[in-house]
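Quick start: read one record
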Amino acid sequence: MVTVDFSRLSLGPGDRVLDIGCGTGRHTASAYQCPYITVIGGDLNLDDVQQARERMRFHDHCGVHGGGSWLLSVSDITCLPFGNASFDLVICSEVLEHIPDEKTAAAEIIRVIKPNGTLVVSVPRYLPERICWALSDAYHQTPNGHIRIYRKQQLVRLLEAQGVVYQSSHFAHSIHSPYWWLKCLVGPERTDAAIVNGYHRFLTWDILKKPRITRFLDALLNPLLGKSLVVYCNKREQDCLAEP
């Protein structure tokens, strides 16, 4: 799922974007469609990076891009292999809830942002996530699974303490919340639950086709049921000037 609303962002030719914790590259590919930018996707999981590479190659083959360039890296969010103030935009989607050392991770992603650059962070929203935890211990006790649930102000305080200023936020993917509740209810490891499999087929169809009715329904329900919280911040210029 793409949680970032790229219409809220001001990207221009020559800008550099980092999608850290890129997974299989959905946000990397979406950013790549912006005109003449350079986008780097980074993730600690080599298998995910290899899948992201195939996704990006497919976009190149189909010509679905903005004419810029892309690069992928096996990267640890707590020790990024990039210099200070390297990127105009950093995207960190559905990552921080997995990271034991959240303060170091937040400091690293903010360190690599340019003066007045933009940070977009998404995490599971508190209420839908709390319901998942209540329905299934296995949901959050899997290796490398979710280790915390963020409230909005908690996330904003974490980020602002490292040198950014909160700008705005929204919720996303309300129609995905019932899928995860059903999955937790029947057991996250089960693959034979007809209702869960049917809902998954519906979500796949929705992602591929993007029909107006589900876009409208998703937007209508997001304030109440949105699965993800998406926060937009700008980096304070004085902090950038103080960096060595």
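DSSP finds ten helices and seven strands in the chain.
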